[in-house]
Every structure is written in structure tokens, then in C-alpha cells.
Amino acid sequence: MAGRTTHISIITLNVNGLNSPIKRHRLVEWITKQDPTICCLQETHLIGKDIHRLKVKGWEKSYHSYGLRKQAGVSILISNKIDFKPKLIKRDKEGHYILLKGTIHQQDITIINIYAPNNGAAMFIKQTLLKFKSLIDHHTIIMGDFNTPLSPLDRSSKQKLNKETIELNNTINNLDLIDIYRIYHPTSSSYTFFSAAHGSFSKIDHILCHRATLRQYKGVEIIPCILSDHNGMKLKINDKRRKEKAYITWRMNNRLLNDQWVIE
């Protein structure tokens, strides 16, 4: 298996459109520099006839979801460095999500890449998670642009979470999923997006993992990206994905949300 690697890292980035050849070229340069093994992109704005334009040398496997108009659009790109075999693909007809289930070096993995619409983002994420409830397992990683903070720390304004976001957090918790960034950075106020209209920073890009397999991850970070109005995020997975069934029982204290951060 020459050229293969057991080191796995996954990047997520809202690219804010890829119809410009220059933008696509800069994205390829950025991916090459970051050197992930899997790349999840949101807001590609590519339609069916243009998908072939998104090419990265050494990344022959790519999976896309797109609509009829040049908006939304999500893609999952997979490097030739890993032996990935697909088993199941589910796409949104408007390009807001794609679910990809398969194996990497004969180990199961499910990736759900989501771009939530600006309006009703928290409800959309909640409904998408519930739609895929039967497919979400210990090997699932969910990432993308959720278009909503999950914690008061995710906003520079420290604005209170609304009821829809609290309901989303409850759903995440009930599915045994966890915001892995907050495991490694529990008090960090780092952001992935700047809103010029509101003059505020926020972290609306997220990575959710199953709490039963947290030990297989070795870190997550926000990474700068000058080609988009979002920063990216990178999740690093241990070289040897542990097979122990150790179950991490950390669970969000919902009282912290309900008591302090709900808008009445």
C-alpha cells in the first residue's frame, strides 16, 4: 500500500463560492499547504455542469451535493493517501448537506457535511440530525457551517442563546454527540466568521463527534484562510484508531443554558 497513510486529519471550510478559476486555484494551494486527508467544503455555489472544475491533484475521490442555482453546495474531497471505500451517500436536493458512509483502511466512518441556511439555521441542523438519527453511530463526524453559535463563547458579543439553539444543543446531547472544539478549548473565544454588517465575530463553523470515541481524536483547531470570509477548522485523528469501547460520559449541563442564556 505504497503512498498510503494512517494519519488522518479532516478540514472543514466555507469557501464562499468557487465559480472563479482564481478562487479554485487558491483553494488548491490552501489544501496543499494544510495537507489534510479529507476536506469538507460548504457554499461551493457550483451546479452539476461545473462540478468537474473542482479538482485537486492527488484527490481523485470527491462527493458533491448541489442544487439548480449557484448557491449553497457542499463537497467532500478525499485524498489518495487513504484507502477510502464508500458504502452509502445521501444528498440534499438543494445542496445543504451530504452524508458519506464508508471505510478508511477497513475501519468504518460516517461524515456528514452541512451548510445551514441563514434563516432558521438551528432548526435546520436539528431536523437534519434527527433525519439521520438511525445512521449516526460511534464512527460519525458531523461538520460544516451551522450558521449558528452553539455556546455564548461562540460570539464576541456574548449574546444569549435563543430557544432554537438550546433545542439544538439538547438534540446534540441526546444523540450522544459533542462539540469537540469545546473539549479541547473549553474557555476559548476564537471565531471563524466576521460579520461586517453587525461588526461582530462568531464561531458558526463546528465539528461534532460521538462522545464514545473521543479518545481516537488528538486535537482540533481553527485555521486561518484568506481566500474566504470564514476560517477553517481541522480535526486530527490518532494514527492508530483505538478499538477500546471506553465510553466518555461527559455531558453538557443543560441548566447552564436554561438558567442563564435563554432569551425569554
Automatic annotation (TrEMBL):
Enzyme Commission (EC) number: 3.1.11.2
The note on cofactor binding and number reads: Probably binds two magnesium or manganese ions per subunit.
The protein's matches in Pfam families, at most eight in alphabetical order, are given as:
Exo_endo_phos (PF03372)
- The record places the site described as Interaction with DNA substrate at H230
Keywords in UniProt for this one?
A: DNA damage, DNA recombination, DNA repair, Hydrolase, Magnesium, Manganese, Metal-binding
Q: Which GO terms describe its biological process?
A: base-excision repair; DNA recombination
Q: What is this protein called?
A: exodeoxyribonuclease III
Q: Give the classification, highest ranks.
A: Eukaryota, Metazoa, Chordata, Craniata, Vertebrata
